Structures are given as structure tokens and as C-alpha cells.
Automatic annotation (TrEMBL):
Compartments, as annotated in UniProt: Membrane
Membrane topology (UniProt): Multi-pass membrane protein
Originating organism: Lysinibacillus sphaericus (Bacillus sphaericus)
InterPro entries, A to Z: AA-permease/SLC12A_dom, Amino_acid_permease_CS, APC_YAT
Protein name: Lysine-specific permease
GO cellular component: membrane
GO MF assignments: amino acid transmembrane transporter activity
């Protein structure tokens, strides 16, 4: 039988099994970040803002993400919960904010599953152009469902190896690129920084172009917050969460910064192929092609396929745990607290997958209009979650001080508090507000563009205010924030 704990409503609920190790949570968080944003979108970033603009934008977003992860890591190490920032907002800010953050994040990942289902079918068409999309859809669903149904350890192992493939690819790419840059491989003279300074480089397009990439870079780093979700099923969160936070930051910065610098050196940012979203002209493929690897496109196609499987796998895990915690906290129907004998939130898992499949089916009707609106509504979710993390951490530490608790009780202390969460909140707010700034810069406001880009914000506000009005919640005084840790 599973262990028992008591939720906020006084009901007993089974505990999730703590079977994730440090290597699992490190790779889960890392794998959630390295994907199509690096393998495909990095080329477009360099083409639009030049190598200097792309490097600056990704470095600034990387610093913001670092502070977010230290904030989340401090709370998760002290109070591990599968509800993560939803639970922390409920305890340290306002239950209405926790409710809205939780449902917002669940919806985001449920829709992400639909997007990955659609993407996998397109990827498989590269090798099997005459095959049925339905076949690959079923195969994808069965793979991610199986990994999530078996046990949390099986999920952790599958995600560990999915992430390892991506990490190994980036490492090999960086090594090969450096050898080519210095003229050791490829039979060409050293290129150095020559391609950085052609045309109007290295900052092509000036400030606005770099700012546009700054916004896009934020999407590339989304997924790092999975680290907080895994805390509820980690065997020693006080030890493993801090280790994961420290290693993830350096790996992300090294991978993204070195990879983008290498692409910028080897491929002129004026090369029109960088703007293509075709796998065959991914910047990674272009570099491997230049080395003379004939099967470069097929290789990158296979790696991007594992990235899609990884995203779907993590999406199902994160959203099912969030829904389970919402139910435990009384923010979702009680049926979703039900765990299988293996400690898996079975009904939360099945509902999430069903919503993802229904959203995917919506792409076949009305020219996909409904599906595109569903995707647009989820676009802001990651940034809203990040804002929630920064604000919750600021309140958490202030409540710690207000209640006279010694910060030595914290298994891990976030660096540069209070600068860290305040900086992260400010930068993230700039990203959210500036999401489609061009809609406001023409002769007249592009209202359709505004609606498409910002639809996620009013939906979040409706959830927040709806719960607040119904339950008459208020911001929790610092002296009354719940800082008790369950044993």
C-alpha cells in the first residue's frame, strides 16, 4: 500500500513514490530545454539578429533562467511538492494564484502533447512519405503512455536516455565545429570570427532585432521548471535538487552559447538557409554537411524525433502530476487523486492524454483554426509560470524572515536574494509585455495580432479572479504563510 498524507481539505491521499535520482532530475530539466529551439530555431535567430545579437539574447535569457531555477530550487529543496509553483503560490501568496497557475500550467502541457503528436507525424513522413499519419500518432501515444504508466522510475530512465541523446549530439557538434573553425577538420582554412563581421554584423538589424530574438529565446529555455515538478518524487530533494540546479545552469549556458557561437562562425548569418524550418537545412545539418557527412539530414531528423518524444513524455508527466496535486489541494475533482499500485496518478494521466488527443484532432477541422487558437492560448503559460516562481520565492523568503526562522534551515539558498527573483520577474515581465510589440508600432494597432499573442493572459486572469471572487481569498499575511514541511 502507498503511504498516506493529509491534504488541505483534511482528506487523506496516497503519496507519490520517491524514485527519481539526482541524475534523473538533472537530465529531465536539461532535456526539457534542449530541443527544437536549439536544433532548428537557433539558425533563424542568428539570421535575424546576427551572431552577436543571438548570443547576447540567449545569454541574458540564460541568466534570467538561472535565477528562476535557484528560486525554484530553494523552495523545492525545502518543501518538495509535485504541485511546485502552484503549491508555493497557494501557501505563500494567495490560493487563487496557486489555482490559476496550476490549471494554466496543466493546460499548457496538455496542448504541448498535441503539438508533439502533430510534429512526430511530420518527422516520420521524412522517411516514410506514403505512410499513414494515424499510424505514427498511435505509436507515439503508446510510447509516452507506456513510459508514464509503468512507474516514475521508468519515466525517469526513459527521459534520462532521451536527454542523453540530445546532450551527446550537442557535445559532438561543438567539438566538430571547433575543429572546423581552427582548420583541423573539413580541409578548409581557419574561419575564426570572419563571419561575425560581414555585412552589418555582428549585431544585424540593431536593437529591435536583438530584442525580437530575446523574446524568442525565452521559449527555447522553457521546460527547466520541470525540475520543481520532479521534487515531489525525488528520493532526497534536499540533496538532489541543489545539485541539479547547479549543473543544469552551466550545461545550458555552455551548450547554447557555444553552439550558437559555432554556428555563427561557420555559417554566414546572411545565408538564407538559416531561416528555413526544414530539417534538411537545420543549422546543425548544414555544419555536418560541410564536414561531408552524407546522412547529416537523416541523423538530425532522428535526433529531433527523440526531442519530440522527450517533450511528449515530459509533458504527460508534468501535467498529470500538476493535476494530481490540484486535486489533492482541493482545486480539482477528487477522482484525480487516485493512484495506481505503482504510484501513478492514473486518472490525471488519462485525462491529460485525452485532452491532448482531442486538441490534436481539432487540427483536422476548419483548416486547423481551433487548434491554432488552442496553441496560442498556451503560448504565454510558461512565462506566466516563471513570473509565479519569482514572486512566490520573494514572498517565501520574506515570510521566513517575518516568522523569525533562521535561513540556515534551508537545504539550499538561492544566490543573490533578493536581486535574483526581482531581476527574473522584471526580465520575464518585459518578455511577456513585448511578446508582439510590432502589433503596436504600425499606423494602426493590429488587434488580431494582439489577440493571438496575448490571449493567454486574459484566460489566466479569468481563472485567478474567478477563484478569488468565488472563495473570497486574499493575499496571505507573511506571518501566516504555511512554512510547515510534511515529514
Amino acid at each position: 500500500m502507498s503511504e498516506i498524507k493529509v491534504n488541505q481539505l483534511g482528506h487523506k491521499a496516497p503519496k507519490l513514490k520517491k524514485e527519481l535520482k539526482s541524475r534523473h532530475i538533472t537530465m529531465i530539466s536539461l532535456g526539457g530545454t534542449i530541443g527544437t529551439g536549439l536544433f532548428l530555431a537557433s539558425g533563424g535567430a542568428i539570421a535575424q539578429a546576427g551572431p552577436g545579437g543571438a548570443l547576447l539574447a540567449y545569454a541574458l535569457i540564460g541568466i534570467m533562467v538561472y535565477f528562476l531555477m535557484t528560486s525554484l530550487g530553494e523552495m523545492a529543496a525545502y518543501m518538495p511538492s509535485s504541485g511546485s509553483f502552484s503549491t508555493y503560490a497557494t501557501k505563500f501568496v494567495d490560493p487563487a494564484l496557486g489555482f490559476a497557475l496550476g490549471w494554466n500550467y496543466w493546460y499548457n502541457w496538455a496542448i504541448t502533447i498535441a503539438a508533439e503528436i502533430a510534429a512526430v507525424s511530420l518527422i516520420m513522413k521524412y522517411w516514410f512519405p506514403d505512410s499513414s499519419s494515424a499510424l505514427w500518432t498511435v505509436v507515439f501515444i503508446m510510447i509516452v503512455l507506456t513510459f508514464n504508466l509503468l512507474s516514475v522510475r521508468s519515466y525517469g530512465e526513459s527521459e534520462y536516455w532521451f536527454a542523453m541523446i540530445k546532450v551527446a549530439t550537442v557535445i559532438v557538434f561543438i567539438i566538430v565545429s571547433l575543429l572546423m573553425i581552427f582548420g583541423i577538420l573539413g580541409g578548409q582554412a581557419p574561419v575564426g570570427f570572419t563571419n561575425f563581421f560581414i555585412s552589418d554584423g555582428p549585431f544585424h538589424g540593431g536593437f529591435l532585432a536583438t530584442f525580437g530574438i530575446f523574446l524568442a529565446a525565452g521559449f527555447s529555455f522553457q521546460g527547466t521548471e520541470l525540475l520543481g515538478i520532479t521534487a515531489g518524487e525525488t528520493d532526497d530533494p534536499g540533496k538532489n535538487i541543489p545539485k541539479a540546479v547547479k549543473s543544469v545552469f552551466w550545461r545550458i549556458i555552455l551548450f547554447y552559447i557555444l553552439a550558437i557561437a559555432a554556428i555563427g562562425m561557420l555559417i554566414p548569418f546572411t545565408d538564407a538557409r538559416l531561416l528555413s524550418e526544414d530539417i534538411a537545412v537545420s543549422p546543425f545539418t548544414l555544419v555536418f554537411d560541410r564536414l561531408g557527412i552524407a546522412f547529416a539530414a537523416s541523423l538530425m531528423n532522428a535526433i529531433i524525433l527523440t526531442a519530440m518524444l522527450s517533450a511528449g513524455n515530459s509533458g504527460l508527466y508534468a501535467s498529470s502530476r500538476m493535476l494530481w496535486q490540484l486535486a489533492v489541494d482541493g482545486h480539482a475533482p477528487k477522482i484525480f487523486t487516485k493512484l495506481s499500485r505503482r504510484g501513478i496518478p492514473i486518472y490525471a494521466l488519462l485525462l491529460t492524454l485525452a485532452v491532448g488527443c482531442l486538441a490534436f484532432l481539432a487540427s483536422f477541422f476548419g483548416d486547423g483554426v481551433v487548434y491554432m487558437w488552442l496553441l496560442n492560448a498556451s503560448g504565454m503559460s510558461g512565462f506566466i509560470a516563471w513570473l509565479g516562481i519569482a514572486f512566490s520565492h520573494y514572498r517565501f523568503r520574506r515570510a521566513f524572515e517575518a516568522q523569525g526562522l533562521d535561513s540556515k534551515l534551508l537545504p539550499y539558498k538561492a544566490k543573490l536574494y533578493p536581486f535574483g527573483p526581482l531581476f527574473a520577474f522584471t526580465v520575464c515581465m518585459i518578455v511577456v509585455i513585448g511578446q508582439n510589440y510590432t502589433a503596436f508600432t504600425g499606423d494602426s494597432i493590429d488587434w488580431y495580432g494582439v489577440l493571438v499573442s496575448y490571449i493567454g493572459i486574459p484566460l489566466f486572469v479569468i481563472l485567478w479572479l474567478g477563484y478569488k471572487i468565488k472563495h473570497k481569498t486574499k493575499m496571505i499575511p507573511l506571518q501566516k504563510c504555511d512554512l510547515k514541511v510534511e515529514k
